[in-house]
Amino acid sequence: MATMTLTCIFKLHNPSAHKRAVMDYALREYTLAYQALLDWGKDHESLLKQEGQFRGKFNGKAIASLLPRIEAAIHSSLRDSLLLDVAGNLASYFALQDVAENTGYPVARDPAPEAYQDALEHFVRVGADEQDYNYSRDLLLARARGEVMPLYFCRPDGATRNRNFSLLVDAEKRQLLAALWLLPQGHSLCRPIGARRGNLRRIDTGEVFKSNSETAILVPLEVGRNGWQEMKFLQPSAEGFASVQSAFLVRRDGEYFLHVSFEFPCPALYEPDAWLGVDQGILKTAAYGLVDRQGKVLGTGHVDDDLRQFQIENGRLRRRMAQRGKGLSRRHWKQQEIEHRLHQLANTLIALALQHRAGISIEDLNPAFQVRGSMVVSRFRKLDRILDYKCKLAGVPLRRVFAAYSSKICHRCGEEVRRSEDRQTVWCDHCGYQGHADENA
Predict the structure, then answer these.
(1) C-beta of residue 371 within 8 angstroms of C-beta of residue 285
(2) In 3-state terms, what secondary structure has residue 68?
(3) Which of 121, 164, 413, 422 has the largest CB neighbor count within 10 A?
(4) What is the pLDDT of residue 401?
(5) Is the predicted pLDDT of residue 16 greater than 80, yes or no?
(6) pLDDT per residue over 357-393, tens digit each?
(7) Which of 250-284 are b and which e, b meaning 16 or more Cβ less than 10 Å from the residue's Cβ?
(8) What is the pLDDT at residue 377?
(9) Least confident of 19-23, 195-199, 263-267, 411-415
(10) Which of 12-21, 89-98, 123-132 has the least mean pLDDT?
(11) How far apart are CA 31 and CA 339, in angstroms?
């Protein structure tokens, strides 16, 4: 069965000063070791390119087997993850190098305070040599992304109990936590995590988690109030419909985030008995028509999501706040609300398709696609992206069609329609049809 990997981002909730110190230490050591491996790879590039292939393609695991196990002062399972992380980066570089000659060799970030300024000065002084320019450009971009590399956990809990990370739930407090193995044995920052009560369970296996390890930290994770993280990731994992695969620990603007990858099985696509045509309109995000294989219209409708008005009102509010010097404090919340409504819309369309064993047909948003207003384009593309993966998870066939002029043509007879001044209603002088413009399209 085919599978799909989706990533959920959890913010670490108010970590203590000690836990921050542990994470900062591990992120710094990981970054320095990352660059050391890249330097070794540059000196042994011909070896890695020759031996690091599997079935004619550059392979991360094959390259990882060739890299040296450097003595980085981090947990042993992190050193395994580090090798795979660097190897994957090198595999991508070698593959890209085959199709783009000016590809720059990868560089890591630098935790030194003056690293970004040094990279900027190097870029300003760069000469006409293309290879030197590419290196300087990539160095500056790496430094601009932050001081430390994202720290990679390649497996949950480790197959051999060597530990790596665990995603845990406290059923008593309804709290989500993560156990992260970061430190080497005997480090001065080591403290027992004190997880001995038996109230913690792994989210994906249900196994009781008990540990008093001194090389790990236990951190609570924030879960969104609207419940989408729980419904989309945590509940399927707890019920066995998804599995935890890997994670990245990221430090950004003084805050910490855990990017966790979940693997979902994808059922085979069925042969549709009908098609649900979806028109993405200006006033209504989606209007639909259900048509059987003989072309008979089984039903039409549209979803009253009010997203267009929501975007307009919040755009005005943002501008007023900016004028008052209050910044864009509502912007993140607004984006979350839009995403939430689009997910609900996609769920409605997929449920309707499953009810009638129908496929979904949507407009092809190709580069030539144009519509007035960047807000509208963004909304359409987000819905397209959401439908793409949700249909695969549900086994619903999805196709994209060229839909130019569909709003100007009568769906009954094919003649051109006339539109009202507010452009919401259309009528056909040829066959007498009258209805909502988006539903007709």
Answers:
(1) no
(2) coil
(3) 164
(4) 81
(5) yes
(6) 999 998 876 644 444 444 456 667 888 889 999 999 9
(7) bbeeeebbbbbbbebeeeeeeebebbbbbbbbbbb
(8) 61
(9) 411-415
(10) 123-132
(11) 33
Say which amino acid occupies 35: Q
Spatial distance between the Cα atoms of 441 and 280, rounded to a whole number of angstroms? 9
Phi/psi of residue 251, each to 5°? -110, 125
Query: What stretches of 293-417 adopt beta strand conformation (E)?
Result: 297-302, 358-363, 398-401
Residue 200 has pLDDT above 80, yes or no: yes
Residue 389's H or E segment, with its range, is helix 374-394
Helix (H, G, I), strand (E, B) or coil at 425: strand
Q: Which residues pair with 262 in a beta bridge?
A: 6, 244
Kindly report the pTM of this predicted structure.
0.78
- Look up residue 29 and give its amino acid: E
Q: Read off the pLDDT of residues 323-357 as tens digits, 9 standing for 90 and up.
A: 544 444 444 546 667 777 788 888 999 999 999 99
